[in-house]
Specification:
This protein has 349 residues and is of the alpha/beta class. The strands form four sheets. The chain has a seven-stranded mixed beta sheet. A hairpin with a 4-residue loop joins strand 9 and strand 10. Helix 2 packs antiparallel against helix 5 and helix 3 runs antiparallel to helix 4. It is globular, with a radius of gyration of 20 Å. Bound molecules: 5-S-methyl-1-O-phosphono-5-thio-D-ribulose (MRU). 5-S-methyl-1-O-phosphono-5-thio-D-ribulose (MRU) binds next to helix 2 and strand 10. The site of 5-S-methyl-1-O-phosphono-5-thio-D-ribulose has 17 residues, from helix 2 and strand 10.
């Protein structure tokens, strides 16, 4: 029996168990998935969210799909697996880690199935999904160490949304950098933007950092400029959902505004993300699909209705920060600097 446990999910004996991120921080509730369609729903409904966590979930979801069809003939198994991939891929459009993980799993399936039965293939796919999760932790720790070198003892870092252990299999990207800096003995403070409308910063980042006894102060999004003006912020570090070939970066809505504020105040603005978040097929940020979510996310503040249903709403879930606003992209292969088209090409060679 194989199992692996991270903060966002646990895989155990063909069960995928998520901490329900919709309920945090007030309730710690777990949701168990035994089918790939349940995993697809969990991703769509934001039980699990955050680009690398979505990728790992899709990898395990793919295994659950394979298990469901393990008694089929090889030909119909292959056909069914195309369906499984499509259902999982149709959940959320922006985080490229979803498609990266599904393509990796499909490649493994295709190279395995010809010399193995579907039953045997399922076990090999399970090992592959576990490798995706294990690598995610390792990659975050490595990029965390690179990023920690950019922060000085006594610094205060502003972050937006949640790019922590909950947004990955474990450890986190932007919060991985904070964790590594704290581990190296530096005294670091964090300001967390609340991140309207879904409040990932207020509900998730603050919860995670408080659990780790890291000094965190919650601000509403409209306070970021003022705390920078007051000299309270030394660096901004955020995660990413998709990085284009020229370094333009899609991340949670509001990141773009924070990057402009950082530039105006001459504060370094860093992206922390695994190489799997780079999408070389997107030439610039204009090629990145931006998810638009349910308008009630804006009409409501968490569960409290703020305005009548008839109020017109626009709810893009992500924005794109132009590469010219980015001081560095922290990856497991080192910190990439401008010109990003060249530094990105170099690490992908
Ligand atoms: O809509 P979400 O909560 O999935 O969006 C998450 C973000 O935008 C994160 O900042 C990003 O995925 C980086 S996660 C390490």
């Amino acid at each position: 029996m194989s199992r692996i446990k991270g903060m966002s999910m646990e895989w155990s004996d063909f069960n995928l168990i998520f901490i329900d991120q919709r309920k945090l921080p007030l309730e710690e509730v777990y949701v168990q998935c035994t089918t790939y369609t349940q995993v697809a729903t969990a991703i769509k409904d934001m039980i699990v969210r955050g680009a690398p966590a979505i990728g790992a979930s899709a990898a395990f979801g793919y295994v659950l799909g394979a298990k469901e069809f393990e008694k089929k003939t090889k030909d119909s198994f292959i056909l069914k697996m195309a369906e499984v991939k499509n259902v999982l891929a149709a959940t959320r459009p922006t985080a490229v880690n979803l498609f990266w993980a599904l393509e990796r799993m499909e490649r493994k399936m295709k190279t395995t199935i010809f010399e193995n039965t579907p039953y045997e293939t399922v076990r090999i796919l399970e090992d592959e999904a576990i490798a995706v999760a294990q690598e995610d932790i390792k990659v975050n720790q490595t990029l965390g160490e690179y990023g920690a070198q950019l922060i000085k003892d006594g610094d205060t870092v502003l972050t937006h949304c949640n790019a922590g252990a909950l947004a990955t299999f474990d450890y986190g990207t932007a919060l991985g950098v904070i964790r590594a800096a704290v581990k190296s003995g530096k005294k670091i403070k964090v300001y967390a933007d609340e991140t309207r409308p879904y409040l990932q910063g207020a509900r998730l980042t603050v919860w995670e950092l408080m659990k780790d006894n890291i000094d965190v102060t919650l601000i509403s999004d409209n306070m970021a400029g003022w705390v920078m003006h007051k000299g309270l912020i030394n660096a901004v570090i955020v995660g990413a959902d998709r990085i284009a070939a020229n370094g333009d970066t899609a991340n949670k809505i509001g990141t773009y505004s924070v990057s402009i504020l950082a530039k105006y105040h001459s504060i370094p603005f860093y992206i922390a993300a695994p190489v799997s978040t780079i999408d070389i097929k997107s030439e610039t940020g204009d090629d990145i699909p931006i998810e638009e979510r349910d308008h009630n996310e804006v009409r409501y503040c968490h569960k409290l209705k703020m305005v009548p249903d008839s109020v017109k709403v626009f709810n893009p879930s992500f924005d794109v920060t132009p590469h010219i606003n980015i001081s560095g992209i922290i990856t497991e292969k080192g910190v990439l600097r401008a010109p990003y088209d060249l530094s990105i090409k170099k690490i992908l060679l």
